[in-house]
């Protein structure tokens, strides 16, 4: 049975584009992949309500990595929907400390100082995840025919969710804002290309990126790519 996947798109702060979240319905209920940024909190809650997702039917919130535009509403949704938060331990520090550069290369002082003001990721958005996600982990126990893939590059703790039918929720490893490609913001391009290489032998059919339109995996160019 094909997965019922609903793409939910929300604005980033200061009109700097949009971010995708994905609501997946299975026979056991719903799983939400990523949660959007703090500025879109009302839209996120309304979108879930319109989709028929309720506190009793949302079984888990899967976080592909720890950036503010993907986990900005995680603590709120856990409280409102009573759904556990799951992410890779490599990005735990981002959620617990509100520091988007945990386990990343250190930026200049200006970026480190100004980014918290831009993201709106304050003490109220910080959280400790409920579930540790590891490479190869089977998610069938929550009624989702899918497994976890470690896909470092954008961050060390970045993951993908490879679901039934070859549907890949890749977070910010790949994007499709203009064309399918490596995400333009990459902490470690070599690790990212290794992650793409890991995907090629798998039965990936459709990619659901954090930014831009879903696309057939076959449209991704062959060979190493560079973040622009």
Supply the key terms.
228 residues; alpha/beta; Metallo-beta-lactamase, Chain A
Which helices and strands occur, and which strands form pairs?
Layout (H helix, E strand, L loop, with lengths): L3 E8 L6 E9 L2 E5 L7 H10 L7 E5 L5 H4 L2 H8 L3 E3 L4 H6 L11 H11 L11 E2 L13 E5 L8 E5 L3 E5 L2 E2 L5 E2 L6 H11 L6 E4 L5 E2 L12
Parallel strand pairs: 3-4, 4-5, 5-6, 9-12
Antiparallel strand pairs: 1-2, 2-3, 7-8, 8-9, 10-11, 12-13
Question: How does this model look, in words?
Answer:
Helix content is 22%, strand content 25%. It has 228 residues and is α/β, with parallel strands linked by helices. It has one domain: Metallo-beta-lactamase, Chain A. Strands 1-2-3-4-5-6 form a six-stranded mixed β-sheet. Strand 8 and strand 9 (167-171) form a beta hairpin. The longest helix has 11 residues, at 109-119. It starts with a strand and ends in a 12-residue tail after the last strand. 43% of the residues are buried.
**Poorly predicted regions:** none
Sheet with the most strands, sense and barrel status: 6 strands, mixed
What is the CATH-assigned architecture?
Answer: 4-Layer Sandwich
Strand content: 25-35%
Fraction of residues in H or I helices: 10-25%
What is the CATH class name? Alpha Beta
Could you say how many structural domains there are in total?
1
Beginning-to-end CA distance, first to last residue: 38 Å
Please give the count of helices: 6
Structure classification:
alpha/beta
Radius of gyration: 16 Å
* The CATH fourth-level homologous superfamily: Ribonuclease Z/Hydroxyacylglutathione hydrolase-like
- The counted number of beta strands is 13
